[in-house]
Amino acid sequence: VGDAFIGAACISYYGPFTGNYREELVDMWLQMCKDKEIPVSDSPALRSTLSNAVEVREWNIWGLPTDNVSIDNGILVTRGRRWPLMIDPQGQANKWVKNMEAKNGPRVTKLSDPNFIRTLENSIRIGNPVLLEDIGETLDPALEPILQKQIFKQGNRLLMRIGDSDVDYDPGFKLYLTTKLPNPHYLPEVCIKVTIINFTVTMKGLEDQLLGDLVRKERPDLEETKDRLVINISSDKKQLKDLEDKILKLLKESEGNILDDELLINTLNNSKLTSSVIQGRVKEAEETELEINNNRELYRVVPIRGSTLYFVVADLALIDPMYQYSLSYFSMLFNKCIDLAPPSEHLDTRLETLINFITEFVYRNVCRGLFEEHKMIFSFLICSSVGRSLAALKLAKQLKMKKEGKEEVEEEADPRRGRIGGKEISVTEWNYLLRGPKPQVAGTQWPGSDRDRPHFASKEKWYNIRGLAADVDSMKDVTENILLSPSSWEEYFFAEDPYERIPFPFDDRLTNFQSLLLVKAIHEEKLVGCMYRYVGKSLGPQFTENPPFNLEEIYTDTSRQTPIIFILSTGADPTGMLQRFGEKMGRVPGERLHIISLGQGQGPIAENTISKAMRTGDWVCLQNCHLASSWMVTLEKLVESLQADSEVHDEFRLWLTSMPTSKFPVPVLQNGIKVTNEPPKGVRANLLRSYTQMSEDFLTSCNKAMEWRKLVFACAFFHAILQERRKFGPIGWNIRYDFSGSDLECSLQTLKMFLDEPGEIPWPALVYVTGQINYGGRVTDDLDRRCLMSILKQYYTPAVVLSNDYAFSMSGTYRAPSDGSHQSYMDAIKALPLYEDPEVFGMHQNANITFQLQETKKVVDTVLSIQPRLATTGGAKTPDVIVGEVAHEILDGLPEHLQRAKASTTTFALGYGGQMNSLGVVIGQELDRFNRLLTMMSSSLTELGRALRGLVVMSGDLEVMYDRLLNNQVPGLWTKVAYPSLKPLASWVLDFQRRMEFVKNWIETGAPKCYWLPGLFFPQGFLTGALQCHARKYQIAIDSLDFGFRILEKEDPKDLKSSDTVEDGILVNGLFLDGARWDSKLAVLSEAQPGEMFSTLPIIHFIPKANYTPPAEQYQCPLYKTSVRAGVLSTTGQSTNYVLSISLPLHIMGPSAAPDFWVLQGVAALCALD
Question: Who has greater pLDDT, 1073 or 431?
Fold first, then answer.
C-alpha cells in the first residue's frame, strides 16, 4: 500500500524537481508512512513499482538516458494522467519521444507554426501522437480543451471541441510538450493542467550516461551480459506471475474438495518446483548483476571528468551567447576520445590516459571557438572545476558515512584522478578567490589586528590577509607567520613572481590553488599571470597555449550537415583566408564558392544559392549574419533541412560569419563548428596590418613622395597608439572609442590632399583636420580630445620629415624609419618588439599594473558571473544565514536620519543681501539625498529580513539584493539613489557611515574649517555654491568667477590652526592622485613611485577669482568622482563624473615640465578610491 501511495505521490508532485530533491521528498514520505504504520518497502522506487526492466531497456534503446532520474522521468511521461510538459534544454526528451513514437507516425510542430492547430486536429482525429516543441512560459489558449481532456460523447462518437468545431477523438492520441528554456517559470494555472517533468541533465545523471557509453565500448561483454540478465530476470518474473495467476484462477473455479482436484494439485507441484528453480536463477542473476555493476564502477572516474567538462563547456554560454554547445555534440566528442585515446592493457593506465586525452581533446575543440580573452578563463575553469568536483565527491562521501553512522576512514589518494594530482578545492577557498574576504561581522574575531600591521603591508592587503586567515583553514596562521618572519614576507610582498616565491613553511604546505589565494590577497594585479602558472602546473603546459588556427584541420571535422561559423571581432575579416583555402580545395570564389553579404533583400538570394549548392556540392559563405536578425529563423530551418535531407551533396559546405549576438539561432550554433577570428593585438601587429593593406604604388602616389611616406608611417603609428591605448582603461581613454580602419583611411586621404598642394606643408591645418575632425569626430569627452591632440603633436610634426632618426618614445625604441620602399618599412615594423612597453604611449611603468588589475577584475568578475549561488560545506552557514547576518549587521550600524531641527544657528543662516547662505542650500540638498538613501537602505534591509523569515514574498528586487549581499557587492536598489562609488560592500558601508558623520557634524556644529569634498553627493553643486557665496559677498557676476588653487603643506585637517582659516574661498581635503604623486618638498607634481598607484593630495585652497585664466605652464588636472572617470555626458559637454580641473605646478626643467607629459600619462585627481 505504501509503495503504491509513494508512487502516486511521485507522479503527482515530483516531476519539476532535480534528483537530490526527489530523494529528499521520497525519504520524507517514507518516514511519514512508517510513522503512520502504513506497510511500505524499506527503499521504495518508482521504477520497481510502476515499470519493468524490459520496458526500461526499450526506452534506453530509444534514447532515454540510463540514469535513475531519466528513467523516473520516463515513467512520469508514460504513466501520468495529464499530458507531459518536459523541461528539456539538452534535447534528450525530444530525441527519446521521437524514437519511442516513431512506429505511430508522430507529428512534430511548434506554437509558432501557423498550421499547428490543423496538425493537432488531424492527429486527434486519426490518433497520431503530437510533439509540440519550443514551448515558452505561456501556453496558447487553443490548447485548453486538449490539456483539460474535455472529451464528450455523442452517440457512439467521442468528440472534443477545438475552437468552433467538434473533432472526433481517437483514444490513441497522445500529446507531448517540450521546452528548451533551462529554468522556466510557469504560473500555477499552467502547472495544474500538465505534468511538468524536469529532463535537465544533472552532473550525476550525465555521469551515468557517459559511464554507459564508456563501458559499452571498453567492456562490451559486460553490457551484453547485463542486457541478457535483464531479459532473463524479466522472463522469469513473468513466468512466476503467470503461475500465480493460473493457481488463483484454478482455486476460484474449483468445486468440492480441493484435494480431489488433480489438475490443481499438479499445477501447485509444478509451481513449487518451477518457483524454486526460478528463485535460484533470480538470486544468481542478481548476484551477477551486482558483480557487473561493481566492474562498471571501476570506470566511473572517466565519466566524472567528462561530466565536469560538460558543465564547464555549457556555462560558457553565460559568458557569450555565441558559445553554445549541445549535449549531443559533447557526447560525440566523448565517444570520439574513447576511440582515439592510446590503448593499454593495464586498467589504471588506460583510465588515466582516457582522462587526460578527453580533457585535452575537449579543450582544443572548444578553444578554437573562443575569443582570446576567454581561452584562459576556460582552461582555468576546467582546472578548478576538476578540483572542486573532487572536493564535492569527498564531502558527499563524508555526509553519507555520517548519515549511516560510520566513522570516516582516511583513504589513500586515488591514482586514477589524472593530472590534477588529487588536490581538492574547498568551497571556502573557491569563494575567497572570487569574492575576497567576507565582511567582518560583529562578534567574529579575525586573526591579527590593525595595530599589528607590518610597515610593508598596506591597510587593504593586511585586511585581505586577515580575511584569508579567518576564511581558509590552511591559512589560519598566516598573520602570525608574517609577524614572526617579517624579512622573508617583506621580500614576498615585492616579489616579481609571487606564485613561485612563497615563504617557508607555506611553500611546501600549500596546494597549487591555495598559492593563488595568497596571490589574490597580496598581489592581486598578478593574479591572471599566476592563474596561467596554476593551470600549467596542474593540467600541463598545453592548457596555457592557444591551439594554432588551421583551416585545413577544422575542415576535416566538418560535414555537409555541419555549418562552420566564424565569430568575428572588430577589425577581423576571414573572407580572404576562406577564399585562399577555397582555391586550394578547388572552390574558386565566384564559381564554386559563393559569398553573400547579408542585408536588406539578400535573404531570398542566399536561400536560393544554398538550395542550388546543396545539389551541386558548392560552398556558400553568408557574411554578417548579425545584420539580418529577421532572416535568422529561415537560416535555422535551412540548417535543420541539412540534417534531414539525405540528398545533400557530400562536398557541400555552409560558412557563416557573425559578430556576437543573442539573435543568432541557438540550434545552428550547437550543431555547427565555431571558430573565432581576431586581429592580432599590439602596436607592432597593428602597424603590420595597416602596411599589409598598402602597396608600393600607394606609397609613391603623392607629389611630395618622401614626406608622404614618412607621414604615412607617422599616421599609421598614431592610429595604432590610439587603438592600443584602450587596453589601459580609464587612464588610456575616459570612454572606449572604436577607432577603425576607416579613420586611418580618411586621414591618409586628407594627408595626401594637403601634400599634393604646392608649397610648404600646412601643419596647423593638417593637425586640426586629422585630430579634431577625422578622429575627433568620434571623441565625445573634451578631456579625451585634449589627450588625442597631445598624442597627435608627437606624430604630425616637421621633425618627422626633417629627421631620419625621429624618436616616438623617450627610450628611442620606437623611431621613424629612414625613407625607403614599402618592404623597408615592413622590415622596420617587424624589427619592433612584440609586446610594447607603456612608455611608447607616454605612460608610466605603473600603467602596466593598472592594466593587470583591470584584467584580474575582468577575469574574476566573468568567472563569478557564471557561478551558481554560494554553496556551503557540511556544518557551514547556509547562504540565507550569511545574508541574514550581513543584512542585520548593516541595519544595526545605520545612523539616525539627519534632521534640520538639530541644525546649528549658522548652518542655514541668511547670507549677504538677506538671502539664504548658498552653502546652507547645498547642505540642505545633501541632507535630503542622504536621508533618501538611508530610508532605502533601512526599508530594503528590513524587507529582506522578513522575506528570509518567510513573512513576505521574495520579490525580484530582493532576490537581486540577496545575491549582491552574498557576493559582497552593493545592491542595485541602493546604487540607484546613492553617490557614485566602486567600493565593495564592506568598504562601501564604512564609507557611507563616514559620509553621514561628516554631513551630520556640518549640520549640527556649523560649516567646517576644511571641507571633505568626497563626502558629498554632488561636489559640483557644492563648488558652485562656494562661488555664489563669493559673488554675493563682493557683488561680482558669478559667470566671471573661476577657481584658482593653492596647495598647502598639511594633509590632515586636524593639523590646521585657527590662523589657517581662509577669508575667501574654501579649504578642501580628501583628494587622491591617480598616476602621479605630489612632491611636498618642491611643491610640484612628480612621477609616481614604482608600484604606487594612488597618492594623497594635501589640503587645497580653492580661491575664487574673476576672469581667471589657468596658467599655461601648469597641468590642468581633472578631478573625477571615481576611477572609472566616464559618466553620462551632461549639457556642458563634460562627463557627470567630472568635477573640475585643478591647476598643479610642474617642474621647471625636464620632460615633466610640459603639461602634455602628464596628459599622456593620464594623471587625474579622484574623490574616492575603489
Answer: 1073
The secondary structure of 197-257, three-state, reads: EECCCCHHHHHHHHHHHHHHHHCHHHHHHHHHHHHHHHHHHHHHHHHHHHHHHHHHHCCCC
Q: Are 1108 and 1080 in contact (CB under 8 A)?
A: no
Amino acid of residue 289: E
- For the chain, the distance separating the N- and C-terminal CA atoms, rounded to the nearest angstrom, is 64
Task: Give me 1080's grid cell.
Answer: 611636498
Can you list the positions of beta strands (E) in 546-663?
A: 564-568, 593-597, 619-623, 653-658
Which triple of cell numbers denotes residue 253? 473455479
> Hey, is 871 helix, strand or coil?
coil
Please state the rounded mean pLDDT for residues 692-713.
87
- Residue 1116: its H or E element: strand 1115-1120
d(CA 797, CA 771): 13
- Going by C-alpha positions, the residue among 636, 642, 622 that lies closest to residue 664 is 636
Secondary structure, 3-state, 980-1021: CCCCCHHHHHHHHHHHHHHHHHHHHHCCCCEEEHHHCCCHHH
pLDDT tens, position by position, 338-384: 888 888 888 888 888 899 899 999 998 898 889 888 988 999 999 88
Kindly state the average pLDDT of the residues 752-759.
Answer: 87
278-282, 548-552, 598-602, 1130-1134: range with lowest mean pLDDT: 1130-1134
Return the SS3 of 847. Answer: helix
Residue 450 has pLDDT above 60, yes or no: yes
Question: In a 3-state reduction of DSSP, which class is residue 297?
Answer: helix
Distance separating alpha carbons of residues 941 and 962, to the nearest angstrom: 10
Distance CA 171, CA 237 (A): 31
Residue 476: phi, psi to the nearest 5? -65, -20
Across 475-492, b (16+ Cβ under 10 Å) vs e yields: beebbebbeeeeeebbeb
β-pairing, 175-179 vs 130-133, is parallel
Give the residue from 1075, 1153, 1154, 1156 showing the smallest Cα distance to 1120.
1075
Exposed, middle or buried by CB within 10 Å (0-12, 13-18, 19+), for 115?
exposed
CB 1035, CB 1092: distance < 8 Å: no
349/1038 Cα distance (integer angstroms): 83
Encode pLDDT of 812-826 as tens digits.
Answer: 888 888 888 889 989
Cis peptide bond N-terminal to 879, omega within 30: no
pLDDT of residue 1159: 93
Q: Over the stretch 483-522, which tens digit does the pLDDT of each residue have?
A: 888 888 888 888 888 888 888 888 888 888 888 999 998 8
Amino acid at 748: L
Closest CA to 1158 of 1087, 1078, 1089, 1104: 1087
Task: Return the pLDDT at 394.
Answer: 65
Average the pLDDT over each of 272-281, 409-418, 1042-1051, 1096-1105 and give the range with the smallest value: 409-418
Residue 133 DSSP symbol? E
1101, containing H or E segment: strand 1100-1106
Under 8 Å between Cβ of 34 and 72: no
Q: In what order do the strands lie in the sheet with 1164-1166?
A: 1094-1096, 1072-1074, 1164-1166, 1115-1120, 1138-1144
For 545-652, list the strands marked E by DSSP: 564-568, 593-597, 619-623
CB 1048 within 8 A of CB 958: no
Q: Are 991 and 983 in contact (CB under 8 A)?
A: yes
* Backbone torsions φ then ψ of 649, nearest 5 degrees: -60, 135
Calculated CA dihedral for residues 450, 454, 455, 459, nearest 10 degrees: -40
- DSSP class of 317: G
